[in-house]
Write a structure and sequence with these properties.
Number of strands: 6
Mean pLDDT: 92
CATH topology: Aminopeptidase
Largest sheet: 6 strands, mixed
CATH superfamily: Gcn5-related N-acetyltransferase (GNAT)
Shape: globular
Strand order of the largest sheet: 1-2-3-4-5-6
Low-confidence stretches: none
Structural class: alpha+beta
Order of helices and strands: EEHHEEHEHEH
Amino acid sequence: MNDATIGLEGSEDVIIRGAEHADISGIVRMLADDPLGAGREQYSDPLPDAYLDAFNKIQGQGGNDILVAQVDGAVAGCLQLTLIPGLSRLGMTRALIEGVRVDSKYRGRKIGELLMRDAIARSRAAGAGLVQLTTDLSRPDAHRFYEGLGFVHTHAGMKLSLD
């Protein structure tokens, strides 16, 4: 799907597009500007090579993209969208959304909603039968946000740290 430009009511245009190398610093800054991210991300200048390596791997893997919301030339939001082919549900493709963030100075302008709706549209256009995500239990505001977009709690998520 191509880039999308969406006008905000009484505000500036938001461009939803695939991330570029020049966006990595802004993305990592948003990931780190959060109570959970502050303890697990390393935003510095220069960025650790691990972020650049990960971005290159994402770019090289089909069906895996970082999307950004751009406002007035600045990265105002981001998410990772991954398409996962599967055998279950008659070979249905699932879309996975991770790492959703909106820069604190842009919150409240519906940028997160625009970014999510664009990711859902991209998922549908790619033939995905459902979109799934995980959200930390400590984020009730995020839960309300996703529920407002139509997401429902249908499964219990589990993780195993391999650190």
